[in-house]
C-alpha cells in the first residue's frame, strides 16, 4: 500500500485509513486502547475500543467512558480497516491491535511479555507485515529468571521476616504487578494485606475470574497479626506516614529495573525482586520473529539500540517517538486517603459520551466496500489465527 498504515501524530499513533488512534495521549474521537496503564489509557476520548477482559479495569480507572469491549480474535471493521485484538500477556485485558487493510497487516503490540502468568491470557504471536513493538527492556542485558523462582524468593523473604516478627512491605505497581505477585504468594505464611490503591483492582481481577488469595485491608488485621503479614502497596506508600503503623518492617520493590544495582539503591529498600510485566531481550526477539514481520517499528524504551540491532539483522526497522512512559516506574496512585480504602473513587472523565455510537458501523463498512477502500484480502482474516 502507499504510505504507512500507522503513523505518529500529535495526538498519538494514528491508523491512517481507519481514522482512529491507538493509545492516544491527547483526546481524540476514536481510540483503541491496548491496556489500562495510565500512559496508554487516558480520559477524554469520544469512543473507546478495548479487549473485553480489560473493560472493567478501564471503567474502574477512567470512570464512565463510552467503551466497547471486543473478545480476543473478534473483528470489527472501521473505515475499511479490519480491527481485532489479541492477547499481549502484559496485564489483565491487555491486547495487541491487529489492523488489516487492502491485504496489508499491521500489529501494534502495546506492552507485552511472553512468559505466561496466572493473571492474564498468554501472549499470542500474530502474523503481520509490520510489527510495532515496545522496547521497555530492549537491551541484551535484560534477561528474566523464570517467575516461579522469583515467587519462591519472595515467599522465602516473607517467611523469614514473619519468623522474626516483622511485616514485609512489598512495593509494586498497583495494577498488574500487584495481582501477579498475589497469584504467587503462599498464604500459609501469614495474612496478606493490600493498600487501598491495590484492593479495587484485585476486585476487578476476581470479577474477571482470576483466582487471587484472600486479601485484607490493614484495618481488618490485628496488630499482632501484622507482624506476620505481607503488605502489598504502591511505590508511593514507601516512606509515607501510612507505613509507620507496621513498626519494624522489611521493605522490597518488584520491578524489572531491580536488575540494576543502582536502581535498587535509589529506591532505598531492603530487597529488590526482578519481576517485570514486559518482555526481556530474548522475549522481544522471539516475539518479533514469531510475527514473521519484515518491518518493525520500535516504540517506548531503547529505541535507537534496538532499531540498529534489528537493521543489522535484516529487518527494515525504525522508531516512533511516542509519549508512552514506563509503567514499571509509574506510580499513579497516591498514598493519600485511598491508602486505607476510603474514598477510592474512580476519576470521572470531563466529557463522557454514554450514548456514543458503537465501533462496528455496518453502513459505513458497506459504503467503504462500495467505494473500494475496504479490505480486499481473501479468506476473511482466517490466516491471522496465531502462528
Ligand atoms: Zn503497561
Ligand atoms: Zn507502555
The shape, in one word, is globular
Termini Cα gap: 23 Å
Q: What level of helicity do the residues show?
A: 10-25%
Largest sheet: 7 strands, mixed
Question: Spans with pLDDT under 50 lasting ≥5 residues?
Answer: 331-335, 343-356, 361-387
Q: In words, what does this structure look like?
A:
With 387 residues, this protein is an alpha/beta fold. Helices cover 22% and strands 22% of the residues. It has nine helices and 18 strands. The protein has helices spanning 52-62, 147-163, 177-184, 199-207, 223-226, 261-267, 281-291, 303-312, 362-370, and strands at 6-9, 12-15, 20-22, 30-33, 47-51, 67-70, 75-78, 81-87, 95-101, 104-108, 130-135, 167-171, 192-194, 230-233, 249-254, 271-273, 295-301, 316-319. The longest helix is centred in the middle third of the chain and has 17 residues, at 147-163. The two termini are 23 Å apart. Residues 331-335, 343-356 and 361-387 have low confidence and may be disordered. The chain binds zinc ion (2 copies). The site of one zinc ion (ZN) has 8 residues, from loops. One zinc ion binds next to loops.
Q: How are the SSEs placed, and which strands pair?
A:
Blueprint: E1 6-9, E2 12-15, E3 20-22, E4 30-33, E5 47-51, H1 52-62, E6 67-70, E7 75-78, E8 81-87, E9 95-101, E10 104-108, E11 130-135, H2 147-163, E12 167-171, H3 177-184, E13 192-194, H4 199-207, H5 223-226, E14 230-233, E15 249-254, H6 261-267, E16 271-273, H7 281-291, E17 295-301, H8 303-312, E18 316-319, H9 362-370
Parallel strand pairs: 3-4, 4-5, 5-6, 10-11, 11-17, 12-14, 12-15, 13-14, 15-16, 17-18
Antiparallel strand pairs: 1-2, 2-3, 7-8, 8-9, 9-10
The protein binds zinc ion (2 copies).
Amino acid at each position: 500500500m502507499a504510505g504507512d498504515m500507522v503513523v505518529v501524530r500529535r495526538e498519538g499513533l494514528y491508523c491512517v485509513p481507519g481514522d482512529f488512534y491507538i493509545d492516544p495521549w491527547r483526546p481524540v474521537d476514536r481510540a483503541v486502547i491496548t491496556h489500562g496503564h495510565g500512559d496508554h489509557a487516558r480520559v477524554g476520548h469520544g469512543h473507546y475500543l478495548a479487549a473485553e477482559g480489560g473493560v472493567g479495569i478501564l471503567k474502574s480507572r477512567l470512570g464512565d467512558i463510552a467503551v466497547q469491549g471486543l473478545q480476543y480474535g473478534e473483528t470489527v471493521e472501521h473505515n475499511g480497516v479490519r480491527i481485532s485484538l489479541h492477547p499481549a500477556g502484559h496485564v489483565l485485558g491487555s491486547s495487541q491491535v491487529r489492523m488489516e487493510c487492502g491485504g496489508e497487516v499491521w500489529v501494534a503490540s502495546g506492552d507485552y511479555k511472553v512468559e505466561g502468568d496466572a493473571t492474564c491470557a498468554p501472549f499470542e504471536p500474530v502474523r503481520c507485515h509490520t510489527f510495532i513493538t515496545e522496547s521497555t527492556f530492549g537491551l541484551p542485558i535484560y534477561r528474566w529468571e523464570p517467575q516461579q523462582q522469583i515467587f519462591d524468593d519472595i515467599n522465602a523473604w516473607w517467611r523469614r521476616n514473619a519468623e522474626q516478627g516483622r511485616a514485609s512491605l512489598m512495593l509494586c505497581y498497583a495494577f498488574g504487578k500487584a495481582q501477579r505477585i498475589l497469584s504467587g504468594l503462599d498464604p500459609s505464611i501469614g495474612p496478606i494485606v493490600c493498600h487501598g490503591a491495590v484492593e479495587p483492582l484485585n476486585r476487578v481481577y476476581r470479577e474477571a475470574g482470576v483466582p487471587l488469595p484472600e486479601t485484607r485491608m490493614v484495618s481488618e488485621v490485628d496488630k499482632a497479626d501484622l507482624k506476620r503479614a505481607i503488605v502489598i502497596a504502591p511505590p508511593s506508600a514507601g516512606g509515607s506516614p501510612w507505613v509507620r503503623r507496621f513498626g519494624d518492617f522489611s521493605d522490597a520493590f518488584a520491578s524489572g529495573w531491580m536488575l540494576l544495582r543502582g536502581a535498587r539503591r535509589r529506591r532505598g529498600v531492603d530487597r529488590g525482586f526482578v519481576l517485570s510485566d514486559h518482555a526481556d531481550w530474548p522475549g522481544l526477539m522471539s516475539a518479533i520473529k514469531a510475527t514473521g514481520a519484515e518491518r518493525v517499528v520500535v516504540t517506548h524504551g531503547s529505541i535507537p539500540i534496538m532499531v540498529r540491532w534489528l537493521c543489522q539483522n535484516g529487518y527494515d526497522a525504525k522508531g516512533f517517538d511516542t509519549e508512552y512512559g514506563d509503567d514499571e516506574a509509574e506510580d499513579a496512585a497516591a498514598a493519600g486517603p485511598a491508602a486505607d480504602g476510603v474514598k477510592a473513587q474512580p476519576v470521572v472523565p470531563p466529557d463522557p459520551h454514554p450514548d456514543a455510537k458503537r465501533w462496528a458501523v455496518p453502513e459505513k463498512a458497506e459504503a467503504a466496500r462500495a467505494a473500494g477502500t475496504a479490505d480486499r484480502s481473501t479468506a476473511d482474516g482466517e490466516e491471522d489465527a496465531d502462528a
